[in-house]
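Posted in: Protein Modeling Q&A

I'm a second-year student putting together a small comparison for a lab meeting, and my supervisor asked me to include a predicted structure for DNA repair protein RecN. I've never done this before, so apologies if this is the wrong subforum. The sequence is pasted below exactly as I got it from our records. If anyone can share the structure token output, I'd also love a short note on what stands out.
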Amino acid sequence: MLLQLTIQNFAIVKALDIDWQQGMTTITGETGAGKSIAIDALGLCLGERATTNTVRPGAKKADLAATFDVTNNTLAQQWLASQELQQSQPDSDSTNGTVEAQECILRRVISAEGRSRAFINGSQVPLAQLKELGQLLINIHGQHDHQLIIKPNEQRKMLDAFAGHDDLIDNVKHYYQSYRKQVAELEALELSQQQREAKKQLLQYQVQELDEFSLQADEFQTLEADFKRFSHSQQILSDTMESLHILSQNEQFNALDALQKCHDTLSTLAHYDSELANIAAIINDAVVQLEEANNDLRHYHDRLELDPQAFSMIEERYSQAIQLAKKHQVAPEQLPDYHQQLALELNGLTGDETRLAGLADEIEQTKQRYFEAAQVLTDSRMSAAKNLSSKVTTSIQTLNMPHGQFDVAITPLSSDKPSAQGQDEVLFVVSINPGQSLEAMHKVASGGELSRISLAMQVILADKVVSPTLIFDEVDVGISGPTAAMVGAKLQQLAQNTQVICVTHLPQVACKGHQQLFVAKLTDGEHTETSVTELSEGARVKEIARLLAGNTITESSLANAQELLAG
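Accepted answer (user: helix_wrangler)
Welcome! Here is the predicted structure, written out as tokens:
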């Protein structure tokens, strides 16, 4: 329930701090005093969009905060826990073991420039989170909401809310979304079928060509190395022979003999000077390494083969690889990966054809499941419609419409195409006078009658869909006399199970509140402020009398006010 509302520099309010009670609170005041200003401030705390005149003239910002008791609001507690936005507080009273009230504070700060910040329990949050949480805390019915009851979509939503079959609606939406997704896929496949066929033919040719060439991973690098070796084989053969000649095969002078002679000479001289021994050892190592290099080079030279046929085959495959790579605009070493990519794309196109062939059957199966789910929803709506019709009829008859009849007419949609909301057209029909046939409400009901029917519906739905706090912002417009007393009794009855806040101009409604707030507008000629005062019992009598008689309060009006409050 709502515990407290703090308002600073909002519209014509400089500062307000309102404490709210359980049961029913009525808000009254003179026309134009700003009776709905607290409701507007609450709306901003719940995430509504701010207008340009939100901030009080001359102020830098408007600061609004609403405190709620969520001790018994399981859904709100779960939401706060899931978002890690709980108010930190002790779990119990250490003195008597009672559970502490769990509070939640929603705050909105709006600058004069229009910038807005939102907070939940002191943590800054996106505005969308205020809206999401607000739906679990308060249900606001505006003074024009009774106009919504004549709209078919709203009528369907009201029936579904009364029926409480969200799982059936979700099931219908699931199959509807699957159906639409499949239809969209089919349309896309059919639209691109011709383009896909042309692409498929091209890919088949490309893949077949690459299949026939069948270049393997890392093969091009081997081909390139072989091609370089074979294309320079004559030079390699000649130069390696010359190198062998220099190293060891020249009888007149070669490197190995020269080094060996140096080693032998220095080894002999080392007997006379030991420093030459290290040098001789280094030259000996060089001789060993040079002999190894000479042996390896001889073996390499001996293995060289000048095979023109093998070279021709390597040259041809190497050239083909380069040509194919140039044709497909990729590097030659990337051809195997590109080949695999084209093959996968071709398989995908082939899969699209297979998908296209089977998709029509899938659509029919999904459509059948949709209509089965829609029929279950229709049956549930039919059952709920009978119950709702009976309840609303009984309720409006107690609201000074003694001959009123209300019925929920459900007919199949004119189109057999799946709809996200099922296959039903829902229409609220009423009869106001004896002998009058049931007709759509906007045809036979006046504004006041619509307001009463809407209020009856709201009370029934509020009883069905429990909300911690219900706010009615002048929903009694167009109602007067005995009907107003009945409306007040209905709201008071509703307040037995939930907190009800009602902005009203009717004394018959105002007197039913457990708490009454009075809104006044004060001005000094230059500045205007709105104040909200909780009325004492004596002040309530005077305010009810004012509502009864206007500005001139008489002894008779005071007596009538006392009688209303006593009743």
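A couple of things worth pointing out for your meeting: The CA atoms of residues 471 and 501 lie 5 Å apart. The chain has 18 helices and 15 strands.
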